[in-house]
Amino acid sequence: MGADPVVLEARADSVRICPRCGQTFDVPERGPGRRPVWCSPRCRRQASAERIAARNSGAAVRVIEVPRAHRPDPDARLPLPSMHTLQRLFLSSDYQCQTLLEDLAHRYTSGAMGEQLRAAVQRFAAAIALQQTLTEDPAYRRARDDVERLREHLRRNVENAEQRDRELARLRREAEKLWSLRARVAELESTLAAAAHPLLQAGQHDQVPLSRQQRRAAQRAAHKTY
Q1: Residue 16 in contact with residue 43, Cβ under 8 Å?
Q2: Which keywords does UniProt give here (predicted)?
């Protein structure tokens, strides 16, 4: 595979904006004659009439500049993708893989293959033969099925453990919020008790002592009540 870069063909702009009505319109990339400026013959005729009227009245004519078409740049270059990208794209095509295997088989049988590549092809063929032999063995198939069942069991256990971890984390967060609320309630109760204690003491000191007659009247009223 050579290291020559890939040549990119630049594309010409195929969309224009009418300078009179502002509507976009498609421009053919190739064709004889001048490139169109207006979106329709109507806009072209109206623009021509405006220019004639402006010239007759002595007003300045508005100049419409049409950008040139972008010509392809023959010197435009793009480096090749990395080998990893090329390998991934190649292996994603069954047709290309089949073509590669057929070419390797032909080169192996004809002897047109280096020692390192020949050894790699032999290891590949041995791995394929071993896989086919094991697949035909009933004991291997049973062991493989057991391994698959164990993997599925482990996968479910891992999912359950992750679910329990998430639930435990949620309970911990709720417990932390509960302890924080309890601490806040205790703090508020302490503040309320500290504020109520001076009021109780002030109420006890503000009581007016009763006279002897008032005490006797209160006692008689109490006896009558009972």
Answers
A1: no
A2: Coiled coil
Exposed, middle or buried, 175 (CB in 10 Å: 0-12/13-18/19+)? exposed
CB 61 within 8 A of CB 51: yes
What does the alpha-carbon distance between residue 171 and residue 165 come to, in Å, rounded to a whole number?
Answer: 10
**Per-residue pLDDT reduced to its tens digit, 135-188:** 888 888 888 889 999 999 999 999 999 999 999 999 999 999 999 898 888 888
* Amino acid at residue number 222: A
Taking residues 187-208, report their average pLDDT.
65
pLDDT the model gives residue 186: 84
Identify residue 141 by its one-letter amino acid code. R
pLDDT at 210 over 70: no
Q: Which two tokens stand for residue 51?
A: 């220019």
pTM score, whole prediction: 0.33
What is the distance between the alpha carbons of residues 50 and 48, in angstroms, rounded to a whole number? 5
3-state SS record for the chain? CCCCCEECCCCCCCEEECCCCCCEEECCCCCCCCCCCCCCHHHHHHHHHHHHHHHHHCCCCCCCCCCCCCCCCCCCEECCCCHHHHHHHHHCCHHHHHHHHHHHHHHHHHCCCCHHHHHHHHHHHHHHHHHHHHHCCHHHHHHHHHHHHHHHHHHHHHHHHHHHHHHHHHHHHHHHHHHHHHHHHHHHHHHHHHHHHHHHHHHHHCCCCCCHHHHHHHHHHHHHHC
Instruction: Give φ, ψ of 79 to 5 degrees.
Output: -65, 155
> What letter represents residue 65's amino acid?
E
